[in-house]
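Quick one, tokens below:
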């Protein structure tokens, strides 16, 4: 779909109005030059009579150009905001495996660079239209002055246009390569910030990253973009040369039929005047081309991913269980250059049950958690809610049963989609989790996130509790907790969650607390090798800080 067609009707009408103003500005500018030529041709005899029309045309040019530029600024900024919103909606609306495959760098490039190139392309449209009208109007006036000489001029300009078109196609190839390299560059920028500590500790690693990784990518972007834009501007220089060739031909080349001096003056004035609009027109074309390339990249982002249906109203039936029935998943493991297969597995989580999931690194624990949460649709088998299959059309409804704190969690600084009454509960839980002296919720926002990783995990668990979902997944949650709060988590927090009727899946390596689970599940190489009940455990002690 083209960019213009994707815009709302109101913006398309604004573009039509702005385009009309741009064309009117160009037509008035040509008329002004024609008046100037007429005054010169009559040696000022018509000057008094043409002064008022000249002033009116000058005012019209100013008004039309101002109107066109203002409207196109409004259109470009509205389109920029709309495109960025659509990128975000398309990205988060895609299936989760596609989100993982797309990656942060590609989305960042689309939001920061590609969308800005599209806006820049829209903003130069009035320049293109106005100057195109000036060029066409001037050529029309030249034809009125002398058809034979106009024909020669058109032949030379046609040659220039053909050369420009060939170079334009070559330039687009390099600009597309630059866009692809820009995606990788965003990934390098992220690595620079995220890995700053490691780079500061190891100067050799720092130098290698700056030279070999970041430097290579920067050079790829620079080289491709330089080649593309250089081709454009070489073509522009050739076009300027052709203009002077036309003027020289008219003034100095031998002619079978001598031209009237007034016609020669008109030709010279028109060609000298037309050079600036034509150069402005040609200078604006690279921005249009980059905008077109950028929009094609944006349009391709997620184009092959079918958007998922949003969740419906929550089910009225009480929650009893979620399960995997012969479910499997498969993905490419880049580190080992091979595919990792999970399942087929059978697994059920019941309301009011604490299930510990254990296994070695790379055994598939987190993948299994994402599979039962509906983030990964099963390649085979079924997801079950209360014993009923959840098909692809109802996957969002199934996911609405889950809250999760994964090991690589993200903590938003606001309580998204929260009830104002949740603030008081959030602050009580913050105190309950021994963070009251460090952070609080005000106006639906955490007043700070300058906390340790373990403390931020506590906030993430608080947010998950506020969501009031019947199933909670905690992926290595206790790994960053101090010994005191780790003990509180296993002996007090988990039993409280069980008492609330939640099904809690805990991925853990803390074997000293395994006896506190209701069930223990062990996974190896993508297969569940053990699923057994744990003997009854003692009741938890009351929480002193809750008093």
């Amino acid at each position: 779909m083209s960019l213009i067609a994707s815009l709302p009707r109101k913006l398309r009408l604004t573009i039509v109005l702005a385009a009309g103003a741009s064309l009117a500005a160009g037509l008035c500018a040509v008329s002004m030059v024609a008046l100037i030529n007429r005054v010169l041709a009559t040696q000022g005899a018509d000057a008094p009579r043409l002064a008022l029309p000249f002033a009116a045309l000058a005012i019209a040019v100013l008004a039309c150009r101002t109107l066109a530029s203002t409207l196109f600024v409004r259109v470009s900024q509205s389109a920029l905001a709309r495109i960025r919103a659509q990128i975000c909606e398309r990205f988060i609306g895609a299936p989760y495996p596609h989100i993982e495959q797309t990656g942060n760098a590609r989305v960042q490039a689309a939001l920061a660079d590609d969308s800005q190139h599209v806006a820049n392309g829209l903003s130069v449209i009035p320049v293109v239209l106005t100057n195109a009208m000036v060029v066409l109007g001037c050529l029309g006036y030249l034809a009125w002055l002398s058809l034979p000489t106009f024909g020669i001029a058109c032949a030379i300009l046609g040659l220039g246009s053909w050369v420009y078109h060939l170079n334009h196609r070559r330039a687009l190839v390099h600009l597309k390569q630059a866009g692809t390299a820009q995606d990788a560059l965003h990934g390098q920028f992220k690595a620079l910030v995220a890995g700053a500590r490691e780079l500061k500790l190891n100067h050799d690693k720092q130098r290698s990253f700056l030279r070999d990784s970041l430097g290579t990518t920067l050079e790829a972007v620079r080289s491709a973009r330089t080649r593309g834009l250089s081709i454009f501007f070489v073509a522009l220089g050739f076009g300027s040369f052709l203009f002077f060739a036309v003027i020289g031909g008219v003034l100095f080349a031998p002619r079978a039929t001598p031209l009237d001096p007034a016609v020669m003056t008109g030709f010279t004035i028109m060609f000298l005047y037309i050079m600036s609009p034509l150069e402005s027109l040609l200078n604006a074309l690279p921005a249009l081309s980059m905008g077109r390339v950028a929009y094609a990249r944006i349009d391709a982002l997620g184009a092959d991913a079918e958007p998922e249906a949003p969740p419906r109203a929550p089910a009225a039936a009480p929650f009893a269980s979620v399960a995997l029935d012969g479910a499997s998943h498969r993905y490419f493991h880049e580190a080992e250059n091979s595919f990792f297969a999970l399942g087929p597995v059978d697994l059920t989580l019941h309301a009011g049950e604490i299930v510990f999931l254990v296994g070695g690194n790379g055994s598939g624990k987190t993948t299994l958690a994402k599979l039962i949460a509906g983030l990964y649709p099963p390649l085979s088998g079924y997801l079950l809610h209360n014993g009923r299959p959840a098909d692809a059309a109802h996957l969002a409804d199934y996911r609405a049963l889950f809250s999760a704190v994964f090991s690589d969690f993200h903590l938003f600084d606001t309580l998204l989609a929260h009830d104002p009454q949740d603030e008081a509960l959030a602050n009580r839980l913050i105190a309950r989790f021994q963070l009251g002296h460090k952070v609080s919720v005000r106006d639906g926002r955490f007043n700070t996130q300058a906390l340790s990783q373990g403390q931020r995990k506590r906030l993430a668990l608080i947010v998950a509790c506020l969501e009031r979902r019947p199933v909670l997944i905690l992926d290595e949650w206790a790994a960053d907790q101090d010994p005191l709060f780790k003990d509180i988590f296993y002996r007090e927090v988990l039993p409280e969650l069980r008492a609330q009727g939640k099904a809690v899946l805990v991925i853990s390596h803390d074997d000293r607390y395994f006896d506190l689970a209701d069930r223990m599940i062990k996974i190896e190489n993508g297969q569940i090798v053990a699923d057994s009940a744990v003997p009854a455990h003692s009741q938890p002690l009351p929480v002193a800080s809750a008093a």
